[in-house]
Amino acid sequence: QVQLVESGGGLVQAGGSLGLSCAASGTIFGISAMGWYRQAPGKQRELVARITTSGGRINYQDSVKGRFTISRDNAKNTMYLQMDSLKPEDTAIYFCNAVQLGELNWGQGTQVTVSS
User: Fold this and answer.
1) Banded pLDDT at 13 (limits 50, 70, 90)
2) Which of 48, 52, 51, 80 is nearest to 64 (CA)?
3) Which of 19, 47, 105, 108 shows the greatest Cβ crowding within 10 Å of its Cβ?
4) Dist CA 66 CA 28 (whole Å)
5) 37 with 49: CB under 8 angstroms?
């Protein structure tokens, strides 16, 4: 089973940028897609961006299109999320996700706080 560790969260002012990383370790075989999700207080966890491992197909939540960029480095088993033009409503815990042989695997999450 894959283990996922996020890093790079923090506090930033509105309009600023942050970059998140998700390092995968353990059993990497069979991962078909990876993604970033977020969960704000009192809200459900939602998909932010997703990338397939074969073909690199990418999907974004509408609210982050044009501001966030998801990418991956297969050689480093690492996925990234570059977040630009951040807004206070982007404040949430951001989770890394990997779909491995049909099962969902999650990281522990990293806090992103955007001040107005």
Assistant:
1) very high
2) 48
3) 105
4) 30
5) no
Of 22, 26, 12, nearest to 50 by C-alpha is 22
Mean pLDDT within 70-77: 92
In this prediction, residue 74 carries a pLDDT of: 86
Smallest CA-to-CA distance from 81 within 71, 96, 73, 91 is with: 71
> 3-state SS of the chain?
CEEEEEECCEEEECCCCEEEEEEEEECCCCEEEEEEEEECCCCCCEEEEEEECCCCCEEECHHHCCCEEEEEEHHHCEEEEEECCCCHHHCEEEEEEEEECCEEEECCCEEEEEEC
Interval 85-103: pLDDT, tens: 999 999 999 999 999 999 9
